[in-house]
Fold this sequence. Notes:
By secondary structure, the protein is α/β, with parallel strands linked by helices. The chain has 6 helices and 5 strands.
Amino acid sequence: xxxxxxxxxxxxxxxxxxxxxxxxxxxxxxxxxxxxxxxxxxxxxxxxxxxxxxxxxxxxxxxxxxxxxxxxxxxxxxxxxxxxxxxxxxxxxxxxxxxxxxxxxxxxxxxxxxxxxxxxxxxxxxxxxxxxxxxxxxxxxxxxxxxxxxxxxxxxxxxxxxxxxxxxxxxx
Length: 172
């Protein structure tokens, strides 16, 4: 098997609170993540297109454009439908958590938050999206529809082996 270049996951943090941006950026960079910052919803939309983040940490309460609306906009674009969005917000009520799921959010963490808990959630979302991307790629290579879904039951290692095998066969 050939060695593949592994890029650092790029995380976009969207928050209008400078302290949250600083603390979260410092922690994530110390853990090896590449971090991009946006201080508003408008800036976040530009950064999503420019930097193509692997994952987005998104505040709900921001001026002009709230995080729920921004999540809907991002997830409605087919290029970003698999990009995980973790809400990182002070809104701790049940209705906000439900709204976070309805609009396409993948996880929800309230402020103040524990950085280790945040990292566990980030790793879980990155693992999930890696598997979904592999399934999507294999299904496209095989010309299969998502409704067949048996590939989703395989684990990441099995999918990687299957993809390598398919790519080798296509080269022949």
